[in-house]
Write a structure and sequence with these properties.
Largest sheet of chain A: 4 strands, mixed
Order of helices and strands of chain A: HHHHHHHEEEEEEEEHHHHHHH
Domain Acyl-CoA dehydrogenase/oxidase C-terminal (chains A, B, C, D): 258-409
CATH class of the largest domain in chain A: Mainly Alpha
Mean pLDDT of chain A: 94
Radius of gyration of chain A: 24 Å
Keywords (chains A, B, C, D): FAD, Flavoprotein, Oxidoreductase
Domain Acyl-CoA oxidase/dehydrogenase middle (chains A, B, C, D): 143-246
CATH superfamily of the largest domain in chain A: Butyryl-CoA Dehydrogenase, subunit A, domain 3
Strand order of the largest sheet of chain A: 1-4-5-8
Number of helices of chain A: 14
Subunit structure (chains A, B, C, D): Homodimer.
Structural class of chain A: alpha+beta
InterPro entries (chains A, B, C, D): Acyl-CoA_dehydrogenase, Acyl-CoA_Oxase/DH_mid-dom, Acyl-CoA_Oxase/DH_mid-dom_sf, AcylCo_DH-like_C, AcylCo_DH/oxidase_C, AcylCoA_DH/ox_N, AcylCoA_DH/ox_N_sf, AcylCoA_DH/oxidase_NM_dom_sf
Number of domains of chain A: 4
Oligomer: homotetramer
Chain lengths: 439, 439, 439, 439
């Protein structure tokens, strides 16, 4: 089937088309073939978080030489940006999503991407120089410390970690308990961007602040690696941490006390759409794996290829349609970001946030069902994909919260619909005066 | 919520933007306010198929004066076309779909649209002059006679109506039994385009032909009106017909004996996407109706607005997301048609064909559930919408057939995927030679 | 496939088994063969509500002679009851649900069943003699007047129809506006049981009363027949009514002023489970119709029986499983009613109320899809079934309301679950003291 | 909410009621409190498969003393059976499913249960003495070696492992490659029941045989532990194995050469229903966990308890309804087995096999969504439950295969339905002669 590729149908600049082609080549010919080697190079047992498989450094070098670097910093970041629009990046990021190695190899991996965006938007020159620069160079990695155990973190005002100024005003002392700090254990990670409360009273949205916490600060305590469906996601991990009187200079505060909520809005919105873009690539690969098993000549229960079973054909078609619908939704949201900006495009982003991981989970699950036991085991990538994508249905806020926000926006807009329908009625009554009904 | 409108985000020509604006105004200010009047002007009881509510003629006059006429004839029809691309028409047709009066008022209603396309593509000059011209002028209407009772008509080779040349070769005699001839009873309908067999042996795809059958030909017998969930869809109807030795001149055959299959491919593909486009407008209105009831201050079970119920907010969000995904899928398919042509875009069309009516049915059904009894009664348009859109899940071929075609195309393409994955493996083995594994 | 029949597996008394066998014979050999004749005997056009097709009287005579009469009055109604338990009636009512003629033929049709239950439970001797007796004899029929337009009637406290005592205390005057009064137009209907407010202040649940309103009372005004999808359901109908100063003697009040809420609880609970029981029979017939088309030798698209398509086999299996799950749920709820009584079994009833119509709608819809056009037209019973069963998803309260009640009951019970889990923890700690861990 | 318990509603013998009460007490007060201790006692890293946590031995001792032992051997096993019917065991096994420790503690764990059934039904006295006895005593454990990599094992005729008689006819030599041998690595496992081919030609169903293969036979080669999602399920595991010229005495063959297919039918049918029974208990616990988080006072996003969100209430209700429907379906299938025997009840079993894991997966997934990150991590049991239950959708044959079998059985039965409907028509025509239609 001659599929449309987005690059043919969407208005991409010549530069974007070039980057697209380079990325495609890099992902297909460099990243995917390196995946099993990366796994083999990973530490085993107690060494799992001790080193980064060296093949990643090779890939990073290649990517950088090709100009495939920090692509997520779209036009709005001015001189920091390689120059893609969000829509163009969406199409390219989908390619990156095809291989778990491609985002880190191109310095486009979460949570660093969001952290770099945060520093680029809200950091001062000193902060940028000290932390953004090495992050953009790929020399260090970082984690984002927001979620806390024992509270409903989808509502940021529940955060209880404290960022308290010292009496002399020269430092902040951080105390708290957090979990799901992805990347914390990564050998290259040097810094945390931490969300906490600089005050515990006053208006809800003025309590939060974001501060830069170097990983080696005394009092930063590793508690445990969180697992996701049994996976530890080494060497990045998702860790539970405690902060015991961690002392950082006041210069580490970003933007100012009480500006945390504003910063979060900026960080999370973009992150959500990046996840959705990458998820498209995962869905694409899941569908490919499904198709390959469907035509596997060795797997013919009762003499019939799996792909010749009508129910499975139905599943293939549903998967293809869902994937295409997800793609188009992401492109649309990305275009909306380009045209209207992040804030105005928040509902389009929410749609992609809710729809894409859910539907790609369905695709992955159908692929698993075709494989049977191999589909849930280490013999395919599917179970790993499931764990990654399933968790996106609550990461950065559960589907339910985004759907409710979306619905409330629709309901708010209903006053306009009411006016329109009242106007229909008014015009109908006017029109009735002019017609001679047959009745 | 400031929704993106397609016209802002898609590359529309200035002409298309103008047509879009005119159409929007016409649908909102002329068509929708006339809907109840149209219903009131319809004949009652035995008169239901006797006349066309006169307000439609007024609307047609206005539409034509505005240049909103035959818009479905896209660029590829050359001088016959007002000049829209398929993608531009998709965006505009979605507006037409908002009112059941807008398509007939703008001469963009099925099955005439498909019939005009058929005559424009495959008719000879004489046929065009005699039938295409008055159809394009909106002077007459037409029906398409393909489906037959008692056989699986989704497979056209099952058609049994015969088109037999007379001994002298000057005429054809038509005998057969068909149903679901939409528009046949319409007072303006003057002609049928009929699919039958000019031979009953030889290659499967060479038996079918399409012929022009004037409605007043002796032997054309009305059997009954088919209902759809209890609706008769007067004055158009969907009729069961018999053909008893109907004699037409040989000049009425289109393109040539045995060319029917080729003609059908052309006619049905375009028709499917038109249905999908209009369905978007229906879905939009269903969602609006849902929202209006959600904020109806008089309908507060246990003191809570329906729109304030969490389950209903979830339904709103799902509906909005599905609608947006359907829109983007239709635009994509339309773009594909513009870029690749109808034939090459058949799988994109199939995706829209399968996905859009199904998902819009879900939207309508959720809206009904919010209304309760009023939702299924004559008090809202929802039940009527349901009947219309539900039948699209099998009209022009059931979902299952299109999904299977799509899946088989994917499976055929899997040979390429296999090659790609073999190449991944080959490159991995090559790469392994160069790395010094830590293990 | 040798299906289990409920009668083989459930503990049915010999009497119930006899009634089951008689009912089966009556439905299969008398009712179903009479269905088309009934349709033919119905009035056409303006006569649709004028008479009852005479074949129904024949069926009633036969049913009564067989003892298949008022079976819904289960044991708890003492001498009024033919003697079935609720569970036994469930199994038998499922048979009645197979034919739309069987419930009225056996005097087991809504809304009369609920009205008879109401009068039997709450009516005084005089009321029973005057109204319950002729209803039980099948001499008259009745309607239940609760739902009102323009308010959220799923919350009975929103009812606004007034029942005002006259100054002399001898009569009540009824004023109000209602709709969905099923049976009102039925030629045999002589009486309405009307829910209204005898006071408009005081405690929410003390305002409602139920009163007997003879149909021929001056001021009872027919407004229009409500349609369901496009069906009018003649000769019963679902009508919109107005009540203009309708005067009835005070003796017509049931149980006493302000007792309406209590009466409603009793009436609606039982009604819901009756609907669910009958729906099982409808689902059974829909599945049979689906299967028949699946093996229809004349309908072989591309040479393959529909039943040989894998996707359709999947649909058949899902339908069979859902039907079986629905059956078992209804039997369980019925058993719960026998064991615990209506009030205590209200959550089991709610489960059946929510699950059964939803799932049987899915079964009907799949059957339609197999038939294509015929499935939605008058050529099969499916569209009619859909209209009937779909409306049950909001009749007697929408799914959403019942689900929320059920969930709140579960949440209330969570305090006990909490205690249990705390106890698990306590025991674990105790146990830990005794084990010598290997670690 | 006062839930019905099955034990109150189903016809259970006094003995079964006693066992039910003892089991409930044992599971609640002994097994569940021991779960975390069991986890802590498990070997870590390279020791994971080295020992069985000693607390299990304590539990086994207690269970046996209470008479909670080998309960799965239902009445049909005569003197070997503790004396429960299948339906009674279903209700009790559901309790066992509440704790992953309860089945092994009561000697009711797969795959031993199926293996014991197999030996009890098909083994000779010597085989029973040597292997069934120690299995029934809980002294040893076992694995079942059927599934093979690289073939579609859901079709047993694809099995390629060879069981070749030696020239002298005194031994068999086994060669082959298998995976998913659950329990193989378990320290107590001493024996494999292996399915292979004693001949590779002749009728499809006469090639398979089952043989007893002691685990310590030379040539039995461990290849690797298969993972399920990221879990290794130590110390039982699911292993990949190779068989290299394994030599066993001819007495180890069960029932005779070529009798394997017959044996498989017996083994798998019962196993499927046991899985379904246990899954009910898993679903029950998942729902409890969901409810607990719903009322967790510390987790109130935006000040609202999760359980007070309408969407989540909807999810709770759906989960409760699905769980109840699954329970009833399993009880029904179990009753059918009691009444009709395993073979005749195979379609009822298939329904439970398809429906229960699917729906319980939905329940688990909803519970996860309520928990967010904790739901997929080691902090709750949910991700582990998901892995266990999700794999049941293809273990012992994928849903698709069972659904297709069920559908084909329905379609075969359609000849009877056809006769019934033809009879309806015949009777209608007869009846028409007697009625004087009004028309």
């Amino acid at each position: 089937m001659s599929n449309l590729t987005a690059v043919d149908l969407l208005p991409m600049s010549p530069f974007a088309k070039k980057i697209y082609a380079l990325t495609k080549d890099f992902v297909e010919n460099e990243c995917i073939p390196a995946e099993h080697i990366y796994q083999d190079q990973l530490g085993k047992g107690p060494d799992r978080f001790k080193w980064v498989p060296p093949i990643l450094a090779d890939l990073k070098k290649k990517a950088r030489a090709l100009g495939l670097w920090n692509l997520f910093l779209t036009e709005e970041y001015g001189p920091l940006s390689p120059g893609l629009t969000t829509m163009e990046y969406a199409v390219i990021c989908e390619l990156l999503g095809r291989s778990s190695l491609a985002p880190p190899a191109t310095n486009c991996a979460a949570p660093d991407t969001g952290n770099m965006e945060l520093l680029a938007k809200f950091g001062n020159e000193e902060q940028k120089k000290k932390w953004l620069k090495p992050l953009m160079e790929g020399e260090i990695r970082s984690t984002f410390a927001m979620t806390e155990p024992g509270v409903a973190s989808s509502d940021a005002t529940n955060i209880s970690t404290s960022i308290t100024p010292t009496a002399d005003g020269k430092h902040y002392i951080i105390n708290g308990h957090k979990h799901w700090q992805s990347n914390f254990s990564h050998p290259d990670t040097k810094v945390l961007l931490l969300v906490g409360k600089t005050r515990s009273d006053g208006p809800r949205h003025g309590m939060l602040s974001v501060i830069i916490l170097p990983k080696d600060t005394p009092g930063v305590e590793f508690v445990r690696h969180m697992t996701v469906y049994g996976y530890d996601h080494a060497p990045s991990g998702h860790d539970e941490l405690k902060f015991n009187d961690c002392k950082v200079p006041k210069e580490n505060l970003i933007l100012g006390e009480g500006r945390g909520f504003e910063i979060l809005q900026g960080r999370l919105g973009g992150g959500r759409i990046h996840h959705a873009m990458r998820t498209l690539g995962v869905g694409q690969r899941a569908l490919e794996l499904m198709l390959l098993e469907c035509v596997n000549e060795k797997k013919k229960p009762f003499g019939v290829l799996k792909g010749d079973q009508g129910k499975i054909q139905w599943d293939i078609a549903q998967s293809r349609i869902q994937l295409e619908q997800c793609k188009q939704l992401v492109y649309m949201a990305a275009k909306a970001m380009d045209v209207k900006g992040l804030k105005e495009a928040r509902f389009e982003i929410a749609m992609a946030k809710v729809a894409v991981p859910y539907q790609v989970c369905e695709i992955i699950d159908r692929a698993m069902q075709v494989y049977g036991g191999l589909g849930v085991s280490q013999s395919t990538e599917l179970a790993h994909m499931w764990a990654m994508i399933r968790h996106l249905r609550f990461a950065d806020g559960p589907d339910e919260a985004h759907a409710a926000q979306l619905a409330r926006a629709e309901l708010k807009n209903t006053a306009n619909i009411r006016k329109t329908y009242d106007e229909y009625k008014r015009k109908e009554l006017e029109l009735r005066k002019t017609v001679k009904s047959l009745l």
